[in-house]
# Entry
Amino acid sequence: MLTQIPIWNYREAIRLLTLRELRVRYSNSALGVVWSLIAPLVMTVVFTLIYGVIMPNPQPAYPVFFLAGLLPWNFFSLALTASTQSVTGNGNLVKRVYFPREILPISTVLATGINFLVALIPLAILMLFYGVPFTPALVWILPILATQVALSVGLGLILSAVNTLFRDVQQMVDILVLPLFFATPVFYDLSLIQSGWIRSAVTIGNPMAGLVTAYRAAIYGGHAPDMMSLGVPALEAAALLLIGWIIFRKTSDAFVDEL
# Structure
């Protein structure tokens, strides 16, 4: 039974679709993947001017502080919006060839993850420029990144499946991304929220709040993230991955008719 073949057996298809996603994303673009570097740097300049000049911010090396939060957020927001339309955007492929449909949102998230890794280059350069040390705590980026990939794939499976049945989902995701940005401590520190229970509620209700804090602890702070910022999002990511897998498998048989 083809439907019983583990997804791992399709790893070559995932690799090819990931590369295809990258090529399509930057087709007819003179700078290509360089845009992954330019966009966050422009945002860093803007927020540094706002919080470092107009509204002086107590955070030292603010560009590093900001970029350490912006890059994970960009990864998440782009993965969310792209994976939502990963099935509807590949309707011809879905109708022509059999393959586990889960590959589509997975490859979309992985392509966005590659952009994230490339964008770490200017962050490393800024760390050198501002004298932010490269500490052993940087190894924590690996489990944090794995948690974010699991979270993004889980949400991508759910949203891509539901969007195939109800196309309004894509518009809803586009609208929700902006308020989620402000609810995530990208340009501010989560510790600025004075109330402990509100801070905990934000971390539990928005896994990216904890993950951004965890990234910043490892990159900017030079220490291991605490259990709240990484442990809670890891549990939520695992739950969403399982739920997303179940929802996607139960609805995937209807994709061809809906497309």
